[in-house]
Amino acid sequence: CVDYVRSNMDQDDVCPFLDYVLTMGEEYEDCPAKTLIRANSQGVLSSKSFQSCLTHTVSYILDHVTNVHEVSVVEAVHAWGEQQVSERSAGVEESAALREAMMSLFPKLRFLALTATEFIEGPNSWGVLKAEEALSILSNIIKEGSMPIPFGFSNIRVSRMKVRRPDTFW
Questions:
Q1: In terms of pLDDT, which residue wins out, 21 or 98?
Q2: Share of the chain above pLDDT 70, in %
Q3: Is the dihedral of CA 140, 142, 146, 147 positive or negative?
Q4: Of 74-83, 108-117, 153-162, the least confident
Q5: How do residues 117-135 score in pLDDT, each as one tens digit?
Q6: Residue 168 pLDDT grade (very low, low, confident, very high; cuts 50, 70, 90)
Q7: Rounded to whole angstroms, how far apart are CA atoms 81 and 104?
Q8: Where exactly are the structural domains of the chain?
Q9: Rounded CA separation 50/168 (Å)
Q10: Are 71 and 110 in contact (CB under 8 A)?
Q11: CA atoms within 13 A on the CB side of 132
């Protein structure tokens, strides 16, 4: 079964496969999805199935994406969050529902690896951050250590583009 999956899985299959595997608690170290995520992170993030996958699948993918600019990662998670909101949040203020959908993923998003412009035009404009969170993050993008990083946010400043190559596994 594993050999079949490994030889036939493509970027559109990663999310449904992980939804099943992670829900059933069957994750294994030599997961073909992990290899595909590392080899084609942008393809997985932009696949149609990414926007409809489960939160723990997004979290797993964020743990393994590489060789992609952080702005692409953040935008993919935002699109995923919007899809979650459109499916579940009738009658709730959209920005509050979007924040709720995305909040568990904030620790895995490297906002500090964005440029000030990317941050202002992206996460800051989406209404998912509190004013004090946005100010602290933007201040730290501009000048490291200028303000405390808000609790629950990543302090990693290095883009995933610069961290790993697809052939580097750790």
A1: 98
A2: 85
A3: negative
A4: 153-162
A5: 999 999 999 999 999 999 9
A6: very low
A7: 11
A8: 1-65, 92-165
A9: 23
A10: no
A11: 4
- Please give the Cα distance from 100 to 94 (Å, whole number): 10
Amino acid at the residue 132? E
Q: What is the dihedral of CA 153, 157, 160, 161, to 10 degrees?
A: 150
How far CA 109 is from CA of 7, 10, 16, 76, 102, in Å, comes to 31, 24, 22, 11, 10
H helix runs in the chain, sequence order: 2-8, 14-24, 32-39, 41-45, 55-64, 70-88, 94-102, 116-121, 123-126, 131-142, 160-163
Two tokens, residue 167: 């052939």
Match 């404009």 to its residue by tokens: 125
- Write the Ramachandran bin of 83: left for phi over 0, alpha for psi from -120 to 50, otherwise beta: alpha
pLDDT tens figures, 135-160: 999 999 999 999 999 999 999 999 89
The DSSP secondary-structure symbol of 109 reads S
Hey, what are 116's tokens?
């000030």
